């Protein structure tokens, strides 16, 4: 894939790509082979400041651009992404190592959907208004005017880099904000491609900016006094540092952080549907999705059936070159992340876990031998207070734990510091509604996983985040309301 990625992935500031000095660059690696794809230009404090200044200069005009013009540009961007679809797929696969079938069906396909969805939402948005009769006999009209925040820092992770980037950028731009984007250092390429697309469709210079680099660049950005808000998806630990960075200036934040998501399987659930759903929720993107399931609570009467069925499906997964259409499972993102996951494999063993499948590094042939591969892994014999069950691993792993009744299942599932997502598997519709509502999470599925209307609110509770995005929730985050009161 290296030939599809520029030798330099450059910062994009004020409508222009900035030519780097070689000393400021670092290697970008292909997770499937471990080979270098190219070089990435790391920003410094001066470039971050230039990006914020460019955004602040541009937002004064962009925020006054009529909504109809802003959303028309978003729709043109969606069209252009589709025209350059294969380029985005190649960049996404090269950076992440995910199977090309997933990149085509999910990651890149969602990007134009995000632009069109938020174009529709913003175009249709109205304003709140109230006629008030006061106790002293006066009448007043109150109405709300929503104004863009200004310059928004957009920080996105490496697991779904284009999907989450467009999920945040589309509503921010539609609402009249300018953005400075900080992609993960692991996955910079699609952000650079998106900068090209937005320039091609006529987005004014400075409205969209990209600065690359590691955590220090994100810290420079979030501490910058010119930033009016921060939207961040990533680890809980990093989210805490971002919150500390913005707290002196009391800037609004939207955080979608880590998860240790539970699935509850009752003994009346459809076996095949449940196994198919759990296979997706545990192993999609090699478990590197914030919504993936790492805890599976199974009613005792069907525990063996679920354990055997999931083991069989795990063994049927195909680890291979990401561009091969038969590949179902790619590598982990980096060697460092694989070392983290392997430490949890050791912890599970020390806790007395029984390994149903996996538990190590697979043997890969040829150039794939240098990649960051890990075996899809399932455990039994663990308890809810074991570190492997309590801490987010972010790999293709799950612990299977039995339960006897509904009350116990709900108690076990909610016994966590996180609160992002859960799934409930049952043919009892009343119980499905009841248990889904009892989950202390931001997203609760019944007999499905990873299915959502883009107009619905998305986010987590507790260590899984603050705030919601999606639909009207995004409009509320990316704007500030002013109430106007006129006596009648």
UniProtKB/TrEMBL annotation:
Highest taxon of the lineage: Bacteria
UniProt-listed Gene3D superfamilies: Aldehyde Dehydrogenase, Chain A, domain 1, Aldehyde Dehydrogenase, Chain A, domain 2
Any one Gene Ontology molecular-function term assigned to this protein's record: betaine-aldehyde dehydrogenase (NAD+) activity
Domain Aldehyde dehydrogenase: 21-483
PROSITE patterns, per database record: ALDEHYDE_DEHYDR_CYS (PS00070), ALDEHYDE_DEHYDR_GLU (PS00687)
Record: active site: 256
EC number assigned by the record: 1.2.1.8
Keywords for the protein's UniProt record, in alphabetical order: NAD, Oxidoreductase
Family: Belongs to the aldehyde dehydrogenase family.
Protein name according to UniProt: Betaine-aldehyde dehydrogenase
Source organism of this protein record: Mycolicibacterium goodii (Mycobacterium goodii)
């Amino acid at each position: 894939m290296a030939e599809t990625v520029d030798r330099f992935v450059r910062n994009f500031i004020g409508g222009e790509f900035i030519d780097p000095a070689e000393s400021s660059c670092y290697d970008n690696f292909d997770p499937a082979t471990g080979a270098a794809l190219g070089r990435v230009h790391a920003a410094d404090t001066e470039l971050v400041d230039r990006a914020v200044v460019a955004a602040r200069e541009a937002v004064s005009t962009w925020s006054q651009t009529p909504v109809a013009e802003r959303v028309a540009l978003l729709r043109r961007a969606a069209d252009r992404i589709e025209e350059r679809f294969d380029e985005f797929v190649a960049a996404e696969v090269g950076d992440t190592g995910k199977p090309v079938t997933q990149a085509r069906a999910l990651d890149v396909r969602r990007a134009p959907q995000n632009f069109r969805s938020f174009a529709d939402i913003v175009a249709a948005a109205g304003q709140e208004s109230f006629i008030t009769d006061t106790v002293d006999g006066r009448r007043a009209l109150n109405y709300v005017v929503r104004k863009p925040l200004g310059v928004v820092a957009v920080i996105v992770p490496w697991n779904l880099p284009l999907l989450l980037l467009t999920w945040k950028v589309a509503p921010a731009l539609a609402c009249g904000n300018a953005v400075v984007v900080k992609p993960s250092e692991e996955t910079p390429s699609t952000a650079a491609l998106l900068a090209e697309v937005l320039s091609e469709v006529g987005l004014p210079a400075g409205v969209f900016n990209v600065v690359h680099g590691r955590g220090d660049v994100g810290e420079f950005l979030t501490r910058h006094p010119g930033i009016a808000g921060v939207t961040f998806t990533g680890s809980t630990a990093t989210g805490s540092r971002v919150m500390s960075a913005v707290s002196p200036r009391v800037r609004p934040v939207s955080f979608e952080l880590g998860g240790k998501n539970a699935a509850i399987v009752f003994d009346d659930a459809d076996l095949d549907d449940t196994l198919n759903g759990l296979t997706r929720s545990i192993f999609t993107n090699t478990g590197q999705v914030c919504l993936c399931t790492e805890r599976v609570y199974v009613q005792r009467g069907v525990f063996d059936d679920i354990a055997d069925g999931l083991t069989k499906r795990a063994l049927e997964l195909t680890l291979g070159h990401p561009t091969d259409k038969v590949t179902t499972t790619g590598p982990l993102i980096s060697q460092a992340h694989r070392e983290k996951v392997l430490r949890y494999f050791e912890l599970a063993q020390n806790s007395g876990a029984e390994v149903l499948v996996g538990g190590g590094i697979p043997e890969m042939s040829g150039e794939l031998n240098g990649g960051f591969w890990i075996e899809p892994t399932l455990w039994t014999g663990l308890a809810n207070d074991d570190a492997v069950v309590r801490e987010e691993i972010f790999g293709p792993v799950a612990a299977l734990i039995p339960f006897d009744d509904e009350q116990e299942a709900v108690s076990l599932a909610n016994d966590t510091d996180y609160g992002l997502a859960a799934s409930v598997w049952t043919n009892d519709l009343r119980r499905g509604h009841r248990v889904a509502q009892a989950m202390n999470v931001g997203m609760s599925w019944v007999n499905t996983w990873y299915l959502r209307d883009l107009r619905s609110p998305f986010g987590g509770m507790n260590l899984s985040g603050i705030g919601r995005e999606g639909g009207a929730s995004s409009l509320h985050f990316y704007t500030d309301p002013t109430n106007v009161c006129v006596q009648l």
